[in-house]
Design goal:
The protein has about 500 residues and is mostly helical. It contains 24 helices and no strands. Helices cover about 80% and strands about 0% of the residues.
Length: about 500
């Protein structure tokens, strides 16, 4: 926001509504709206990341058989590996495409409208993957996974926007953790449904991949009963009547008054301003610290070592004496662990605050990186060490879920106002997917080169992020979006004054 407008509306930024009691628990309609948004949003991301692991061998056999029938020759090992890698990794390409169009869709169709339209990609993907086996075209798997990625990219961009804008200030953190809760719920669901006892058998693997249409259909049936984002209706569309109706449905008649006044203040300040394009954010000096913060947070979310933990998990489980055929069931334990920590983060975030959880999470992850490096190095020295390694794995997952996994998306919502938030999600989401692709490509080489000492690289990243958050990021708990923006501006002024003061001291000393 330009400085002249900020000075003019400064009283609006610091004035709090003291006479209105903030709700401690969500309205039932609000809670159901969050679930309806998440089931077809970030749940799909988690589900499609994990569900592809179960039918690996069956898809290999299908490609082998299809290639043999089509070309009357056996497929080479290199081509098979290339095709399987393409099926898995094309998901990230789709995610990158999805996040770049998600912000635009949220502005054109609204947050709710974009989520509903996004289900078209999931249903089309399910159709393609479900038909791949009966038709004998493995190319349909590649196309289906691409559309799954587009669906996930749009969901990761638009759903946190919707959650952050429908929740009251006092519950914004708890409602925002719906993103991470449903991601972990999707991962756990994919692991469970992929078991041999359910759809993880050779004759049913194509049906397993096609189940991605189930959450999409559920959202199409449930979400239309809930309103559009009140902020979008009032600030972007200028529809006072629908905004008041949405607030009454989501917050109740008593709880909607303070939210209406806060949204109206932001609308008054944003009069004459249009939603910014992603590239315009880089030239806006008033939000440079917010932008730098979300860039670092989203890159670190992928580069902090959580992917390395899952890479080493199977090895550690085998070292602990767990039979290979039982490891999928133990892996479900890690998924359940993530799910529980996401729920715990939702319960704590509006009590302890965002800064405490995310800085504490990165600090604990740093400690876990040291311990994992030690236990992997000493793996063969004692029969107890493999069990200590397993404990460190679960501790790392707990720390990630309580901190970076649960809080990063919430901060991306809170650090920006209505005119800059969609563009911020496009930028942060694109970097997140780029980091996902980078770690997928680079991590095998890091492991080969450094082996267990790769966790020292992640130690540096986690420690630096914990330090940055403690020094730069203000607490956002129970603050309106305008107050959060003002906190950053106040910090910038203090730093500028400190620099000016230091310059004046040097000047007087030289004189």
């Amino acid at each position: 926001m330009p400085k002249e407008f900020k000075d003019e509306y400064q009283p609006l930024l610091i004035r709090r509504i003291k006479d209105t009691k903030q709700p401690m628990f969500p309205n039932r309609s609000l809670l159901l709206a969050v679930c309806a948004a998440c089931i077809g949003g970030t749940f799909q991301y988690g589900y499609n990341v994990s569900v592809i692991n179960a039918p690996t061998t069956f898809v290999h056999n299908f490609i082998n058989q299809t290639w043999s029938d089509r070309y009357q020759s056996d497929i080479s090992e290199h081509v098979l590996t290339l095709l399987w890698s393409t099926i898995v990794s094309i998901f990230t390409v789709g995610g990158l495409i999805g996040v770049t169009i998600g912000g635009t869709m949220s502005m054109m169709l609204g947050r709710k409208g974009a989520l509903l339209a996004n289900n078209i990609f999931a249903i089309f993907a399910a159709l393609l993957m479900g038909l791949s086996y009966p038709t004998g075209y493995f190319e349909l798997l590649i196309a289906g996974r691409l559309f799954c990625g587009i669906n996930a990219g749009i969901g990761l961009c638009v759903q946190p926007l919707y959650l952050g804008e429908i929740a009251p200030t006092s519950l914004r953190g708890a409602m925002g953790t719906g993103t991470s809760i449903f991601i972990t719920g999707g991962i756990l669901s994919g692991q469970v449904i992929g078991l041999n006892e359910l759809l993880g058998r050779e004759e049913k693997w194509h049906l397993l991949l096609a189940t991605t249409c189930v959450p999409a259909i559920m959202q199409l049936l449930i979400l239309p009963w809930f309103p559009e984002s009140p902020r979008y209706l009032l600030i972007d569309k200028g529809d006072d009547a629908r905004c008041k109706k949405a607030l009454a449905q989501l917050h109740g008649a008593a709880g909607c008054i303070s939210e209406w006044e806060e949204i109206e203040k932001e609308r008054n300040i944003c009069v004459g301003f249009k939603a910014k394009k992603p590239w315009e954010l880089f030239s806006d000096r008033t939000i440079r610290w917010q932008l730098l913060t979300i860039l670092l947070l989203n890159a670190a979310q992928q580069l902090n070592g959580i992917n390395a933990i899952y890479f080493y998990a199977d090895y550690l489980f085998k070292q602990a004496g767990i039979p290979s055929e039982k490891i999928p069931y133990v892996t479900i334990g890690t998924g359940a662990c993530e799910c529980v920590t996401a729920l715990t983060c939702g319960l704590l975030i509006d009590r302890l605050g965002r800064k405490v959880l995310i800085a504490g999470g990165y600090t604990l992850m740093s400690i876990c990186c040291v311990l994992i490096t030690l236990t992997l190095t000493l793996q063969d020295t004692s029969p107890i060490i493999p069990y200590l390694s397993m404990a460190c794995v679960f501790a790392f997952i707990l720390s990630f879920g309580l901190g970076p996994g649960g809080v990063t998306n919430i901060l991306t919502t809170e650090l920006f106002t209505q005119s800059t938030r969609p563009a911020a999600y496009i930028i942060s989401g694109s970097l997140n997917w780029f980091s996902f692709i980078f770690i997928g490509l680079a991590f095998p080489f890091i492991v080969i080169g450094l082996q267990q000492y790769c966790f020292l690289v992640f130690l540096v990243i986690c420690a630096l992020m914990a330090t940055y958050i403690c020094l730069v990021v203000p607490e956002t708990k129970n603050k309106t979006f305008l107050e959060i923006e003002n906190s950053f501006q106040s910090n910038n002024k203090k730093k500028a004054n400190a620099v000016d003061g230091a310059g004046a001291i040097l000047l007087s000393t030289s004189i």
